[in-house]
Amino acid sequence: MAKYLLLKHYRSASQPAPITCEPMDQWTPEEVSAHIQYMVDFAKRLEGTGEFVDENALSPDGTWVRYDGDGRPPVTDGPFAETKDLIAGWMIIDVDSYERAVELAGELSAAPGQGGKPVYEWLEVRPFLSAPPTITE
Amino acid sequence: MVDEALLRTLTPTVIGILVRRGADFAAAEDAVQDALVEAVRVWPDDPPKDAKGWLVTVAWRKFLDGARADTSRRHREALVEGEPEPGPGEVADDTLQLYFLCAHPSLTPASAVALTLRAVGGLTTRQIAQAYLVPEATMAQRISRAKRTVSGVRFDQPGDVATVLRVLYLVFNEGYSGDVDLAAEAIRLTRQLAITTSHEEVAGLLALMLLHHARRPSRTGPGGRLVPLAEQDRGRWDAGLIAEGVDVLQAALARDRLGEFQAQAAIAALHADAATVEETDWVQIVEWYDELVRLTGSPVARLNRAVAVGQADGPPAGLAALADVDPALPRYAAAAAYLRERNGEHRAAARLYAEAARSAPNLPERDHLTRQAARLNAQLRG
Q1: How far is Cα B4 from Cα B6, in angstroms, rounded to an integer?
Q2: ipTM of the assembly?
């Protein structure tokens, strides 16, 4: 088993060109609800298959913070507009193979958008660094 | 205090007895888990004279309660208590059947691992979930799906020891650092299996586990830092475990039916036998890798063989052996870096160590490889 992080980006600099769609606030309330319900059902289904670990959505109000020397308060920058490199949320899955992780990310990306059509959102799949195996030689 | 080790040892036996009395495996397994919970609750104030008898009685009652609650299974009420207790031979057979069922080929590796730890190991779902760092609800579903998957499998159907060994190997090798010591649990389950069957590869796997477990205290330094074999303090290796592992292995090898676990254990035994990395019998290790490659055709064995050839016949020979290995293999760059450095090619080695660090599958390995690259780069800067 291996754990993978499925990262949902608002928009990432390294992301392939997205299939553009209207922002969610331009959808009908039913379309918004259907989209959210899809996410909820997806997580529930993965719990049922014994593959769900964790998920969370993040506020877009990201702030960059860094140390600025002894005794000085940290420097902050932001929040930024949505077009910056921001993570919208994540899901962690525990699956038998990389292929399964990609399959599930593909399904999550098929969440319905306007007119009930899939949003074709890009998801980033990142393997966890695990504990080292006992037997190496 | 409740003797948890005793409870867990009795788990497969009690499941076997319930199945013999006519319970299906899934219901029997649930009933025994319920009985274990009750034992933990009741025994401290009221310890039973006969632990196994107590568990069988309570688990059977739980099973009947469950069967009554489920009207579609009402026929089970007709099942009568008081069948003769199985003899020791039958208990061993039942336990072996339980191993087969929990490692059934229709299960995914993760499901087989979870089911084995619960039904054979007697661990709770929560303990297994914690060990594999997933939520308890996820692990509960994984286990109940696994039970559904094997629900059509007859309990007395003959199984393949090799599938069981793969599951136990996984439990041992992916021993995460949780509440439960999975490596120790894998050893316990393999010992128990070795009692029920005299298969040489069961002994081979047990020896392999013991020999690697013996080195565990010396494998990690401060902060979880990985200590490679060559730098381990061999004085901290567990001599008792090594002696036992070697005995188990020798008895298996004497039967002249070599398998991959015996070959791997033989390699581990040769490492365990050497006072220093220089005194290691690398020539013999290469021979065992040749056997391993012959037995499995495993590309990982080929990669490890190249490193061993580098020790036995010098780095150029190792690099020549590496040329036959697929560079896409995990840890290829790490092996190449090691051989290049020993061959005096420090610049190439530093680059390869950095490449290996980027593709390392776990954090201690990545940190170790990064340090190796940094060490060489610092030397090169003079």
Answers
A1: 5
A2: 0.82
**Angle at A24 (CA atoms; ends A106, A84), nearest 5 degrees:** 80
Please tell me the least confidently modeled range out of A26-30, A49-53, A85-89, B147-151.
A85-89
Q: Tell me, what's the pLDDT at B205?
A: 98
Please provide residue A51's backbone torsions phi and psi, each rounded to the nearest 5 degrees: -120, -5
HSE at residue A86, side-chain half, CA atoms within 13 A, is 17
B227, part of any domain:
no
Choose from B118, B136, B141 for mutation: most chain A CBs within 10 A: B141
| Residues in chain B within 8 Å Cβ distance of A52 | 134-135, 137-138
Across the interface, whether the CB atoms of B133 and A53 are under 8 A apart is answered: yes
Of the candidates A1, A53, A134, the beta carbon closest to that of B172 is on A134
- What's the whole-model pTM score? 0.89
Tens digits of residue pLDDT in B182-217: 999 999 999 999 999 999 999 999 999 999 999 998
Q: What is the distance between the alpha carbons of residues A137 and B77, in angstroms, rounded to a whole number?
A: 55
Note the pLDDT of residue B78.
Answer: 47
Residue appearing with tokens 């899901």: A91
Indicate whether B80 belongs to any domain.
yes
Is the Cβ of B173 closer than 8 Å to some Cβ of chain A? Answer: yes
Name which of B2, B53, B54, B11 is nearest B189 in CA terms.
B11
Domain membership of residue B140 as a residue range: 89-193
Residues B64 and B129 in one domain: no
B208–chain A Cβ distance below 8 A for any pair? yes
Any CB–CB contact under 8 A between B223 and chain A?
no
If you count them, how many residues does chain B have?
A: 382
Contacts of B133 in chain A (CB under 8 A): 3, 53, 94
pLDDT of residue B40: 93
- In the structure encoding, which two tokens stand for residue B236, read together? 């901290």
**Counting every residue, how long is chain A?**
137
What are the tokens at A81?
């507009």
d(CA A127, CA A93): 10
CB A73 within 8 A of CB A65: no
What's A14's domain CATH number? 3.30.70.1060
**What range defines the domain where residue A26 resides?**
2-127
